[in-house]
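Per your request, structure below.
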């Protein structure tokens, strides 16, 4: 079990002036109360630092000069691969057109930057899903997250009903039964916690073991700044 001191040491303020020259990391943005509410990917190439993320549109930009973002480096992607990863993300930026929705079915962005899903031609995802799609498309594995662990039981009935109502109204082209089957919510703190795990696929039961400590560390980081 990871100690809180280890978790704290590896969670770095993203606008820090003393970062390594090359790395890939999971970033989390905090609100004023220290709650993680948005995810992205930090890409460091030869001392140039960018964040790639999605809200209502994709953004490939300099890390904001504020004390809101923190990140944990990904061991899955080696520092010497950062230049290739950067080019891959540039292709995704050029080819992607995501639509916001609490949906994930094992999709990913291919090496050509184009979206692939066995179930949908449209790119439905959250900020977390966007990060998962990117990382899965880059690593040599068929699965990154054991995403079926995040099923209907991990969402409140009220949230489930609201998502179905809102997203199907916004995206009438969605197949309702297919959407219900793949409706899931993986949170930004859970994605951050996953960066501390060494084995893939990432399983919810393993994240659950450390999410309390990770969440507490994240909150403490915000309070300190």
């Amino acid at each position: 079990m990871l100690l809180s001191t280890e978790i704290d040491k590896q969670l770095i303020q993203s606008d820090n002036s003393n970062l390594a020259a090359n790395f890939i990391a999971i970033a989390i943005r905090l609100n004023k109360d220290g709650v993680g509410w948005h995810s992205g990917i930090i890409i460091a190439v030869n001392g140039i630092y960018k964040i790639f993320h999605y809200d209502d549109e994709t953004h490939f930009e300099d890390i904001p000069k504020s004390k809101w973002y923190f990140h944990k480096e990904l061991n899955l992607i080696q520092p010497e691969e950062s230049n290739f990863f950067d080019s891959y993300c540039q292709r995704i930026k050029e080819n992607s057109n995501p639509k916001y929705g609490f949906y994930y079915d094992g999709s990913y962005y291919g090496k050509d930057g184009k979206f692939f899903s066995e179930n949908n031609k449209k790119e439905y995802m959250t900020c977390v899903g966007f990060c998962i799609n990117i990382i899965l498309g880059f690593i040599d594995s068929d699965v990154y997250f054991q995403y079926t662990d995040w099923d209907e039981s991990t969402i409140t009935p009220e949230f489930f009903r609201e998502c179905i109502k809102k997203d199907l109204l916004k995206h009438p082209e969605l197949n309702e039964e297919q959407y219900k089957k793949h409706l899931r919510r993986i949170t930004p703190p859970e994605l951050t916690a996953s960066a501390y795990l060494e084995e893939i696929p990432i399983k919810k039961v393993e994240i659950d073991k450390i999410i309390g400590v990770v969440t507490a560390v994240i909150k403490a980081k915000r309070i300190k700044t």
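The mean pLDDT is 92.

Regards,
D.
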